[in-house]
Write a structure and sequence with these properties.
Number of helices: 15
CATH architecture of the largest domain: 3-Layer(aba) Sandwich
Strand order of the largest sheet: 2-8-7-6-5
Distance between the termini: 46 Å
CATH superfamily of the largest domain: Type I PLP-dependent aspartate aminotransferase-like (Major domain)
Order of helices and strands: HEHHEHEHEHEHEHEHEHHHEEHHEEH
Number of domains: 2
Strand content: 5-15%
Shape: globular
Radius of gyration: 23 Å
Mean pLDDT: 98
Helix content: 25-40%
Number of strands: 12
Bound molecules: pyridoxal-5'-phosphate
CATH class of the largest domain: Alpha Beta
CATH topology of the largest domain: Aspartate Aminotransferase, domain 2
Length: about 400
């Protein structure tokens, strides 16, 4: 069966253990798949929409309750669905940052954070990480001081990634937020790799905004995500329209400006909602997932010359490996060059590593079972042995 003559079915996660860093946490639950089929039609959540005609107030399907549950799950006061974490970033920059105002990002900020600053013509300043690849509160304080000296004002906003996409390291967001608040800088915590994967409480972190990605980490269809705020910011970010047409004198009630009224109107919203009970449970099993990640990393480290670039032992399932002195040595002599690794992995039913890379590469073991973790560990070691590397 195919989708159509021109569109083949995608069977990646059916046929392989998929280690793709950006795909592991977004794989749909069976309930989300059912929701996609049932709510695929445009505006399908609008069947029972009534006053004030807003996504977050729809009772059937229970989107209003879902919004309240999301806010409490995140330890924040209000939450809205957004089409991807990036749209959450933009709603915040657009509300808080004016032209030429400084914004603090980090060495590990995602391009979408930069673009959200660029859209409002903000000026980006970056906090660099320390030698352990961690963003420290001290570095944040120093950079804020520098910005104040140079720009004669503190940054209008600080972005901090709870888990960064390059190393999968966990950064001390709570301490960073405390420092930023000493300078009255509001803090946006980017939870693209944490919300839906591990327990995250915006209140515990002391952040003003907490943003998650549905399709990266909440087992939801794309594009989906969540923007949550503390009560202090709710009115500003979720302000309602105040504009009136000059001829018709029309105004638009309680539509929220940054949300352009409504955001996710069908399969995305209901898919995310259908996965939510599973996601709420799975964050409590994060420790087990981290243990599996360490099992795979330990197997890789047993291969001569192999290093882990991420913090170790791992505290997250996204890991950056350095195999310059192991798999890349093989690649230099192998007839398939750097492609030997992905090719050997695929023969074993494993995929998701960037084809051709044997130096620095990332994998995300999120969602594997105990057996799959052991299988991954054995497979990497076997591929190493088969290619003349010794395994300790
Ligand atoms: C993937 C990612 C994003 C973008 O998330 P979307 O939901 O696709 O917009 C932002 N920040 C980080 C750190 C990411 O890894």
């Amino acid at each position: 069966m195919n989708c159509s003559d021109a569109i083949e079915n995608r069977e990646v996660d059916e046929l392989f253990i998929n280690l793709d860093p950006i795909q592991a946490g977004g794989r749909l639950t069976a309930d989300a798949m059912k929701a996609v089929l049932s709510y695929g039609d445009g505006y399908s959540v609008c069947d029972n929409c009534g006053k004030p005609f807003r996504l977050d107030t729809i009772q059937k399907p229970p989107l209003a309750q879902f919004h309240a549950d999301l806010a409490s799950f995140l330890g924040m006061d209000a939450a809205r669905l957004v089409p991807g974490a990036r749209r959450g970033f933009l709603a915040v920059t657009h509300s808080l940052v004016s032209k030429n105002e400084p914004v603090l990002l980090t060495e590990y900020s995602h391009y979408t954070e930069f673009l959200a600053v660029e859209q409002v013509l903000g000026k980006p300043f970056e906090v660099m990480a320390d030698s352990r690849h961690i963003i420290t509160p001290d570095a944040v304080a120093e950079r804020i001081e520098e910005v104040i000296r140079q720009e004669k004002r503190p940054p209008s906003l600080l972005f901090v990634e709870q888990v960064d996409y390059q190393y999968g390291n966990i950064h001390p967001v709570r301490e960073i937020a405390a420092v930023a608040h000493q300078y009255d800088v509001p803090v946006l915590c980017n939870g693209a790799y944490s919300v839906g994967i591990m327990p995250v409480s915006g209140k515990d972190l002391g952040v003003d905004f907490l943003i998650g990605s549905g399709h990266k980490s909440m087992a939801a269809p794309a594009p989906s995500g969540v923007l949550a705020t503390s009560s202090e910011w709710t009115e500003k970010i979720f302000r309602t329209t105040s504009i009136t047409g000059d001829q018709t004198k029309r105004s638009f009630g309680l539509k929220e400006v940054e949300m352009l009224g409504c955001t996710l109107m069908g399969a995305t919203a209901v898919g995310m909602m259908a996965s939510f009970p599973h996601v709420r449970e799975r964050v409590n099993r994060f420790g087990t997932q981290v243990a599996y990640a360490n099992k795979v990393v330990d197997a890789l480290l047993s291969i001569e010359g192999t290093e882990v670039a991420s913090e170790y032992p791992r505290r997250h399932t996204l890991t950056r490996m350095n195999t310059n002195n192991s798999f890349d040595r093989v690649a230099k002599k192998h007839k398939k060059s750097g492609y030997f690794l992905i090719s050997a992995l695929r023969e074993q039913g494993i995929t998701g590593i960037i084809p051709g890379s044997t130096r620095i590469w990332k994998m995300n073991t999120y969602g594997v079972s105990d057996r799959q973790a052991s299988y991954l560990a054995r497979s990497f070691q076997e591929i190493a042995r088969n290619n003349g590397l010794s395994v300790g």
